Structure formats: structure tokens, C-alpha cells
């Protein structure tokens, strides 16, 4: 079976009112990639991520996941496609009315075919993979620290064994220590689960430590794609400011060190 | 997915060969029969997983459970899937404990928490009222600090904007009441008394309560939700760090504004309801508009109007205080916001009905024409 690309964007454009937030976006994400979408604040990277998962409909162009247009097919086909990717939101987006166990069990229960004892085994496996104590399973999201919320949200995103994982600012709001640990966790899971990961970040430490491919967004367009070394050497004022300042170079050296 | 990729198993010579995709998506289509067959094999069966096209956590859990929560030593597992079973073994240790057992004394804890909840509600409500009195004393000494802008904004939101809906409801209720009374009064030949019945009933009782219920649902809930959201987004804390007292800027204007807006709304509602009643009386009983209007001041003594206005002030301020009380208790999660908004409206309406009963008791000798 020839594997289709997990994510393929062709001629994508988005307009909010009269303003084009994204225009002419073409992007291919190969299987197994750890792709970072990088850009300054307001460069449209979160908008792009939201379009990949179908939260926003592009004004023009097309999003294809696993070789099929995102909106193709009936309700069942689209639901099946959605179950092949998981998304981690910036603030976790755990359901505050449910405890940790029920949060992770939620996508499994939604299938309505699994037995409760199987769900329990799956939930504890996923929680174990993100290094959450089983005692924490009965706590409510409001009682948890930011780092734990992110890891539990990651477990929920992984509940259905997705092939594609999308992360919005995975390390935002975490202290440097937690942030490094979370990056390490994602790297481990990427390897163990054969995941394709697409993430949005503006943190250079995270970028250098996690990404094996980078797409740089500036003013609604992708101005460079490639590995970190290739991207850094592209001649563009944004890249000059973003990657080649003294602070950035320092941060990237630090990030590479943790590889 | 081609037919050959479906999960399948086949036994030959004491060994079970698995093939196809043992994944969540594929297995849920075929699960029950397959699961039963998995469980039917003897404990000493050898397993060969090398023919699998793919295996995910769910597939692994299904097999692992059939094997009695342990990987049989004789199982042929390709290297790529070994980590899956290792994870299961590690994170879901056999016979793992599940939900913590229910505490036999849980009801004592629940009871205690309930009592504590009531005590804390009373305490924070009293604190809020006390704080408002302090703020009132403060602004009376330093009138410069009166939050005019907030008061006027609240007046507009809770008062002016409520006028159309109050008018609509009042007009319809007026018509319906008048029609029902007219039918009864006609039987006794007391058509002229429709003015007394409607006048006293609407001005003294129905107008204030009707407006209170409307305002509690409309403005009370909005106030609770606003304060609650401001707490969740830390805006209230931001105000406090800028040295802006939250009670003065957020609670005080709401209470004052509703204290002013409610009596005006009561007057407005009574007027429209009486107009509706007059219209219905005209068509049902043939009563002259002139007769209705000129008789109204005679049969409804002035104290009734003062009672209505006083009720408006008291009801309005109570609704605002209750709304702010619940708004300030919101915790940063969705459940708390919706719960407190609901409680705010329910409590405000209940409180208004209670206060109305007290009013009825206290004013039973006033304005009813019995001397």
C-alpha cells in the first residue's frame, strides 16, 4: 500500500473580512515528519492549523488528509477521517466537567462499541505513556497544574491511536524544565507510535529541539520550508530577524544540545 | 479496505496465526465474534503475530485481555509490536485497581460540605451587603468617586433595553386578565368593578412581581455571567491591582442602577398592563375608555402606587445583590459559570416572591380602602 501524504495543502487562502490572513499556501507533510509551523505573532500559523483540522473552512484551496479532501464523503467517512488525527490545544481544552479518566475515555466512549473494561485498560495505557500517575485519574482538570493538563490533553489526543498529531503551541505556558520534558515526551511518542506531528510554535528552543522540518510563515505566506539549517540560510528579512538575531542563535544552540 | 485486510485468525497445529489489521477502526466492525473466538483457545496455545498488517493499542488490548492480561511466552511477536505489549504490561498491571472504592461515610462528608456551603454563602452574602454599605458611606463622603458612568451604563442596559419586552408581556397579561375578570364580573352584574380589580391587582401585586421575574431572568443572569467571566479572565484581579475597589466599580453601580430602573420599569409595566386591560374591558364589557381612566385614581388609592414603587426599589436591589453574589463566586471552569448563573436566577426569583409575601403582610392595612 503506497502511503498517501498525511497532510497536503494546495493553494490554500483564508480571508477574514477584506483581509487575507493566508494566501497561496502549498505544503506537503511526509509520513513521519515532525513539522514545525513557525512565524511571528499574527502570521496566521494557528489559523493554518485550525484549517488542517477543519475548524475553519478555507476561502480558497484545499486541505487533504491521508490523500482525501478533508470534507469529502458523508458523515461517517468524515468522522472516520477525524479519528485518524488528534489535536492538542494550546490550553489543553480538557472538559472541565469531567475528571481526567473520563476526559481521556471520552473519544473512546464516543465510538460506542468498546466495553468499559477495555476503555479502562486503554485509558491507563495512554495516561502511562504521558507519565501521569494512576491516582491522578480521578482528579478534576481544575485541580491540575498546567504541565499535567497538557500531558493529559496529549493522552486524550492519542486515545484513538492517531497517525497524525497536531499541536498548537505545545510548550507555551510551561517553565523551561517542564517545556524540555514535554518536548522529550513528544519525541519519544513520535518514535514509539510512528506519528506524523505538525506543530505550531514561536519558541525557538522547542523548534530546535523538536522539529525535523520547518515551514516559516510570514505575512500569510510560506516563505521557506526545509530543515533548520536550510531555513536559517534563506534570505528574507523575517528570517533574518527571527532566526539570526543573537538571542535566537543562542536559543537554537541550546535547543540542539538537548537533541 | 480490502477484504483480505480485515482482522482474521486461523488455527493450525496448535498455533493460532493472526492476520490483517488489528486496529480500532477494523476491529470495531468485526469485534464480538472475533473476541469470543479469541477467548476460546486453551491457555497453552501458541500465538503467531508475524502475519499482522498492523496492530494498534486497541488490538493489543483485545489480544492481551484474551491472554489473561499477560503476554504468553510462546507468542511470536514481531519486534515492532513488542513495545505495545510492554507498555500494556507496565501501565495496566494485571488486576489493576480501578475507581477508588466508595467511602462508607461519604454521606457524612457530603452533609458537612452542604452545611459548610450554606454557611459560606451566608457569610459571603453578608460580607457583600456590608461592603456595599461601606462603599455607600464612602461615596457619600467623597461624591467625586461615584461611578456615574457605570451606573448610567447599567441603567441603560437593565432599564431602557428592558422596556420593549416588559411592555409586550405586560400588554398581553393585561388583556388576558381583563378578559377573564370580565367574564366573571358579568355574571354578577359588576362590570364597573373591573377597574378596581385590575387597578389594585396590577399596580400593587402583579406589576412589581412580573417585572422582577423578567429582570431577574434578563439582567440578573447577565450580571452573574459578566462578573463570572471577568473572574475567569482575571479582569477583576486586574482591577484590584490598579487600586480600583471591585465592589465600588462592579457591584455598587449594578445595585444602584437596578434600584433606580426597577421602580421605573414597574411604573411602565403597570401603565401598559392597564392599557391592555382597558382595551379588553372596552371590547368585552363595552366599558368607556373615559370611564376607566377617570375611575382609576378613585378606586386605587395613592398608597398603592407607593407600595409598587417601594417594591420595585427593594426587588431591584435584591436581584442585583444576588446576581453579584453568585457572579463573584464563579470558579474558573465552565460548570461553575453555568451553575452559578442558574442559581442566581432561581435564588433571585425565590427571594423576590418571599419579599413580596413580607410586603403583603406589612402593608395589609394600607391602601385597600378599608380604612
Give the low-confidence spans of chain A. Answer: none
Tell me the quaternary state. Answer: heterodimer
Shape descriptor of chain A:
globular
Query: How many strands appear in the DSSP assignment of chain B?
Result: 4
Average pLDDT level of chain B: 87
Total number of strands of chain A: 10
- Order of strands across the biggest sheet of chain A? 6-7-8-3-9-10
| Class from secondary-structure proportions of chain A | alpha/beta
Q: Radius of gyration of chain B, rounded?
A: 35 Å
Strand content of chain A: 15-25%
**Number of alpha- plus pi-helical segments of chain A:** 10
Strand content of chain B: 5-15%
Q: How would you characterize the largest beta sheet of chain B?
A: 4 strands, mixed
The residue fraction in helices of chain B comes out at over 70%
- The helix tally of chain B amounts to 12
The major sheet of chain A is characterized as: 6 strands, mixed
Q: What are the secondary-structure elements of chain B, in order, as H or E? A: EEHEEHHHHHHHHHHH
Number of domains of chain B: 2
The share of residues in helices of chain A is: 25-40%
Describe the structure.
The complex is a heterodimer of chains A (259) and B (371). Chain A starts with 6 loop residues before the first strand and ends with a helix. The relative contact order of chain A is 0.16. Chain A has 259 residues and is of the alpha/beta class. In chain A, helix 4 packs across helix 5 (146-157). Chain A is built from 10 helices and 10 strands. The model of chain A has no long low-confidence stretch (mean pLDDT 85). In chain B, 72% of the residues lie in helices and 5% in strands. In chain B, strands 1, 2, 3 and 4 form a 4-stranded mixed beta sheet that branches. Chain B has helices spanning 24-39, 57-66, 79-91, 106-141, 148-159, 163-188, 194-232, 235-241, 246-285, 289-299, 302-328, 334-362, and strands spanning 8-12, 15-22, 46-48, 52-55. Chain B has 2 domains: 3-97, 2-Layer Sandwich (Transcription Regulator spoIIAA); 147-362, no CATH class. Chain B is elongated, with a radius of gyration of 35 Å. Chain B is mostly helical. The A-B interface holds A 80, 83, 96-97, 111, 113-114, 117-118, 120-122, 124-129, 134, 138, 140-142, 160-161, 192 and B 23-25, 28, 31, 56-58, 61-62, 64-65, 83, 87-88, 90-92, 96-100, 331-335.
Amino acid at each position: 500500500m503506497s502511503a498517501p501524504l498525511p497532510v497536503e495543502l494546495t493553494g490554500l487562502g483564508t480571508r477574514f473580512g477584506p483581509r487575507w490572513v493566508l494566501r497561496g499556501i502549498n505544503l506537503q507533510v511526509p509520513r513521519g515528519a515532525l513539522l514545525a509551523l513557525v512565524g511571528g505573532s499574527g502570521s496566521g500559523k494557528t489559523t493554518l492549523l485550525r484549517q488542517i483540522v477543519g475548524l475553519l473552512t478555507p476561502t480558497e484551496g484545499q486541505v487533504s488528509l491521508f490523500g482525501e479532501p478533508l470534507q469529502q464523503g458523508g458523515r461517517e467517512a468524515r468522522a472516520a477521517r477525524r479519528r485518524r488525527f488528534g489535536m492538542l490545544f494550546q490550553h489543553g481544552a480538557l472538559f472541565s466537567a469531567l475528571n481526567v479518566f473520563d476526559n481521556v475515555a471520552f473519544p473512546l466512549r464516543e465510538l460506542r462499541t468498546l466495553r468499559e473494561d477495555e476503555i479502562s485498560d486503554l485509558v491507563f495505557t495512554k495516561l502511562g505513556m504521558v507519565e501521569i500517575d494512576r491516582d491522578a485519574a480521578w482528579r478534576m482538570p481544575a485541580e491540575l497544574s498546567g504541565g499535567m493538563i497538557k500531558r493529559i490533553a496529549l493522552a486524550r489526543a492519542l486515545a484513538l491511536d492517531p497517525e497524525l498529531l497536531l499541536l498548537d503551541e505545545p510548550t507555551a505556558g510551561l517553565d523551561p524544565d517542564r517545556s524540555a520534558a514535554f518536548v522529550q515526551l513528544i519525541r519519544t511518542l513520535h518514535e514509539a507510535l510512528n506519528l506524523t506531528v505538525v506543530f505550531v510554535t514561536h519558541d525557538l528552543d522547542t523548534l530546535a529541539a523538536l522539529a525535523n522540518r520547518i515551514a516559516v510563515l510570514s505575512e500569510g505566506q510560506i516563505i521557506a520550508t526545509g530543515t533548520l539549517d536550510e531555513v536559517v540560510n534563506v534570505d528574507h528579512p523575517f528570517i533574518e530577524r527571527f532566526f539570526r538575531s543573537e538571542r535566537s542563535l543562542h536559543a537554537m544552540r541550546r535547543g540542539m544540545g538537548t537533541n | 479496505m480490502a477484504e483480505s485486510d480485515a482482522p482474521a485468525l486461523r488455527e493450525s497445529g496448535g498455533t493460532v496465526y493472526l492476520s490483517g489489521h488489528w486496529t480500532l477502526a477494523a476491529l470495531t466492525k468485526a469485534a464480538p465474534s472475533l473476541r469470543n473466538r479469541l477467548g476460546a483457545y486453551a491457555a497453552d496455545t501458541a500465538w503467531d503475530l508475524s502475519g499482522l498488517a498492523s496492530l494498534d493499542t486497541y488490538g493489543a488490548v483485545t489480544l492481551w485481555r484474551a491472554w489473561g492480561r499477560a503476554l504468553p511466552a510462546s507468542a511470536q511477536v514481531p519486534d515492532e509490536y513488542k513495545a505495545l505489549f510492554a507498555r500494556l504490561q507496565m501501565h495496566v498491571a494485571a488486576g489493576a485497581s480501578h475507581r477508588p472504592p466508595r467511602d462508607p461515610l461519604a454521606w457524612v462528608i457530603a452533609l458537612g460540605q452542604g452545611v459548610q456551603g450554606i454557611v459560606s454563602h451566608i457569610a459571603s452574602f453578608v460580607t457583600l451587603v456590608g461592603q456595599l454599605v461601606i462603599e455607600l458611606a464612602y461615596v457619600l463622603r467623597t461624591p467625586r468617586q461615584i461611578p456615574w458612568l457605570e451606573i448610567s451604563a447599567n441603567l441603560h442596559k437593565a432599564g431602557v433595553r428592558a422596556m420593549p419586552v416588559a411592555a409586550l408581556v405586560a400588554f398581553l397579561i393585561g388583556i388576558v386578565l381583563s378578559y377573564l375578570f370580565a367574564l366573571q364580573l358579568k355574571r354578577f352584574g359588576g362590570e364597573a368593578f373591573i377597574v378596581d380589580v385590575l387597578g389594585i391587582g396590577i399596580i400593587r401585586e402583579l406589576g412589581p412581581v412580573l417585572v422582577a421575574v423578567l429582570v431577574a431572568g434578563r439582567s440578573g443572569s447577565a450580571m452573574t455571567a459578566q462578573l463570572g467571566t471577568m473572574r475567569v479572565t482575571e479582569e477583576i484581579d486586574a482591577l484590584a491591582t490598579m487600586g480600583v475597589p471591585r465592589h465600588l466599580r462592579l457591584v455598587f453601580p449594578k445595585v444602584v442602577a437596578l434600584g433606580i430602573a426597577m421602580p421605573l420599569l414597574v411604573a411602565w409595566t403597570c401603565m401598559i398592563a392597564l392599557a391592555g386591560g382597558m382595551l379588553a374591558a372596552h371590547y368585552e364589557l363595552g366599558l368607556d375608555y373615559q370611564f376607566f381612566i377617570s375611575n382609576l385614581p378613585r378606586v386605587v388609592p395613592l398608597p398603592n402606587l407607593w407600595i409598587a414603587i417601594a417594591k420595585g426599589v427593594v426587588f431591584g436591589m435584591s436581584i442585583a445583590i444576588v446576581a453579584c453574589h453568585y457572579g463573584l463566586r464563579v470558579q474558573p471552569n465552565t460548570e461553575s459559570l453555568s451553575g452559578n448563573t442558574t442559581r442566581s436566577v432561581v435564588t433571585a426569583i425565590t427571594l423576590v416572591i418571599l419579599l413580596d409575601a413580607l410586603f403583603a403582610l406589612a402593608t395589609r392595612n394600607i391602601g385597600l380602602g378599608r380604612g
